[in-house]
């Protein structure tokens, strides 16, 4: 079982690396920095760290619940903004990342 988890971790890291490369390349096509692709990362990291605390409580701490709710709303907003950036038309001609690949 541990061997299977290791294999899944390797596949996951490989898939995330390919996705990150595709996002960065697409953002470069739009003339944007690849760092825009990291926009949702702080929100998902915060949720991953806080989720065990939320589920470990017998009675809900409403302050923590509200914080997680706001975090999730911001995460979804960041994802929507990133999708809008990725779905837009590329910049015409050459940009700071190189020549237009469609020419």
Automatic annotation (TrEMBL):
<feature type="transmembrane region" description="Helical">
    <location>
        <begin position="34"/>
        <end position="56"/>
    </location>
</feature>
<dbReference type="InterPro" id="IPR008523">
    <property type="entry name" value="DUF805"/>
</dbReference>
<keyword id="KW-0812">Transmembrane</keyword>
<dbReference type="GO" id="GO:0005886">
    <property type="term" value="C:plasma membrane"/>
</dbReference>
<keyword id="KW-1133">Transmembrane helix</keyword>
<feature type="transmembrane region" description="Helical">
    <location>
        <begin position="63"/>
        <end position="89"/>
    </location>
</feature>
<keyword id="KW-0472">Membrane</keyword>
<dbReference type="Pfam" id="PF05656">
    <property type="entry name" value="DUF805"/>
</dbReference>
<protein>
    <recommendedName>
        <fullName>DUF805 domain-containing protein</fullName>
    </recommendedName>
</protein>
């Amino acid at each position: 079982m541990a061997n299977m988890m290791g294999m899944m971790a390797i596949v996951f890291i490989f898939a995330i690396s390919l996705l990150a490369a595709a996002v960065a390349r697409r953002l470069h096509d739009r003339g944007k920095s690849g760092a825009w692709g990291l926009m949702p990362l702080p929100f998902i990291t915060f949720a991953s760290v806080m989720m065990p605390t939320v589920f470990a409580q017998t009675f809900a701490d409403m302050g923590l619940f509200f914080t997680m709710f706001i975090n999730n709303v911001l995460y979804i907003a960041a994802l929507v903004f990133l999708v809008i950036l990725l779905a837009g038309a590329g910049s015409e001609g050459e940009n700071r990342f190189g020549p237009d690949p469609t020419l």
